[in-house]
Amino acid sequence: MQVRIADKMVGAPSPCCVVAEIGINHNGDLALAKRLIDVAVNCGCNAVKFQKRTVDVVYSAEELRRPRESPFGETNGELKRALEFGADQYAEIDAHCRQKGIIWFASPWDEASVDFLERFDVPCHKIASASLTDDQLLRHIRATRKPIILSTGMSTMAQIDHAVEVLDTEQLVLLHATSTYPASYEELNLKVIPALAQRFRVPVGYSGHETGIASSVAAVALGASMVERHLTLDRAMWGSDQAASLEPNGMQRLVRDIRLVETSMGDGRKRLFEREIPIMTKLRRVGL
């Protein structure tokens, strides 16, 4: 089973699709967002992802009034509004990604955000783990008839079953995830990846929030057809997701190691390689 996202096929036997999650790590700065896109391109990522919210819909008035100090003010509302890009900024992001030759899409957290992203003809929609139980949003995304990537953090298998039933599409990629930031290694439960693939018969990937790269590479060895990791210029930067992100060097090593693992997996048929023959001739006493 494969799903086409723009010019990239997701699912075996295609190479793993590596997505750099920029999310809100741009801190409301368009220039920083473009720098992160450039880093993703230079690291060999296949796509970048953002997040899109209609702040007054996603959050209650009480939540927006809640005190929260940030570089943007003293309330949660001031922070949330500062982190949202509008049409002009996304037009520049769209143009920049086209120029750099990289796919971009986003996680819409409400119906208006889906409609907003559709104005840019994004190749797919990503459903965040927090939105997995929002049937109304799922149906609105399904109506776009675009491929859908569904993260499954903070969810039971019964909730995932229900979400897949609501989405009712063959153009579906599931991402195993653990929604702690950063995630501890004992929480990652990577063996869920082949379990999801067997249960739903769709491409399954991994959305990681841990600090290192070894587990994300292991996810590919377990069959992950997509790996999504947060990207930052510096994990010490201000922002709630920075600590669970990879810096440029980490993202570059992740892509490199994923490709090495893919090369190493082979086809499962035992064979004698030509380069083994002189070693065999030298070392074996019998059975040549």
Description:
- 39% of the residues lie in helices and 19% in strands.
- The model has no long low-confidence stretch (mean pLDDT 96).
- It has twelve helices and twelve strands.
- It is of the alpha/beta class.
- The strands form three sheets. The chain has an eight-stranded parallel β-sheet with strand order 7-4-3-12-11-10-9-8. Strands 1-2 form a two-stranded antiparallel sheet. Strands 5-6 form a two-stranded antiparallel ribbon.
- The longest helix is centred in the last third of the chain and has 18 residues, at 248-265.
Q: How is the secondary structure organized here?
A:
Elements: E1 3-5, E2 8-10, E3 17-23, H1 30-43, E4 47-52, H2 55-58, H3 61-65, E5 67-70, E6 73-75, H4 76-82, H5 87-100, E7 103-108, H6 111-118, E8 125-127, H7 135-142, E9 148-151, H8 157-167, E10 172-177, H9 192-200, E11 204-208, H10 214-221, E12 226-230, H11 248-265, H12 277-283
Parallel strand pairs: 3-4, 3-12, 4-7, 8-9, 9-10, 10-11, 11-12
Antiparallel strand pairs: 1-2, 5-6
